[in-house]
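Backbone-to-sequence.
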């Protein structure tokens, strides 16, 4: 009696990529945004047009103001990933806020990845005479890398959120300060510039970590 092949129902759960549709949807949203502001349905004071935001961003770039804010924020993010301390309410505290927020998702994901290493692979490596460091480097670390990168991606997003909160307290520069100061002065074009910058930093960090993940874990590139 021949057996009939069962249909693969899991294929329905596969998420299909539609880059053209995404770009078209984003372009349509920007066009709608521009039309709403140009027709006067929404006052430019509360929602400036995309072209006005772009013009404000270019002007801030030419004056050097935007570069100062971006460099200040990137320095704090970089230090926040590497330091875990709490010193007063000055610069160190802002870095520490980011550090504390990033540490836990990264540590928990790394711990989970190590704990879920395949015990059969560990026993096989030990039976072939693998030492402690060889076992960590060749078995446990590759098994934990997917969870490590998941923690890095989560930590990168968390760091941006905490960055804004930290820079809104006793700061004189940075993207968070830019957003808060623009809000207080009702400079909505600069406010939107700051929001766009945060979005771009989030996309750039996700893109960079994804590329690093593909290099570090080539066997999961098609997963």
């Amino acid at each position: 009696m021949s057996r009939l092949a069962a249909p693969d129902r899991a294929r329905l759960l596969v998420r299909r990529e539609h880059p053209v549709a995404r770009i078209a949807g984003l372009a349509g949203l920007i066009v709608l945004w521009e039309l709403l502001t140009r027709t006067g349905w929404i006052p430019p004071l509360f929602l400036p047009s995309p072209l006005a935001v772009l013009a404000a961003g270019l002007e801030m770039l030419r004056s050097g103001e935007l570069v100062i804010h971006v460099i200040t924020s990137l320095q704090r993010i970089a230090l926040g990933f590497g330091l875990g301390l709490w010193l007063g309410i000055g610069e160190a505290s802002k870095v520490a806020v980011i550090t504390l927020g990033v540490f836990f998702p990264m540590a928990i994901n790394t711990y989970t990845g190590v704990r879920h290493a395949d015990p059969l692979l560990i026993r096989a490596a030990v039976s072939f005479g693998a030492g402690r460091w060889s076992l960590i480097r060749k078995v446990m670390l590759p098994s934990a890398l997917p969870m490590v990168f998941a923690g890095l991606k989560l930590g990168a997003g968390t760091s941006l959120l905490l960055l804004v909160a930290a820079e809104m307290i006793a700061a004189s520069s940075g993207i968070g300060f830019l957003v808060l100061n623009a809000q207080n002065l009702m400079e909505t074009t600069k406010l939107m510039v700051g929001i766009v910058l945060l979005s771009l930093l989030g996309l750039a960090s996700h893109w960079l970590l994804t590329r690093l993940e593909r290099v570090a874990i080539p066997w999961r590139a098609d997963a």
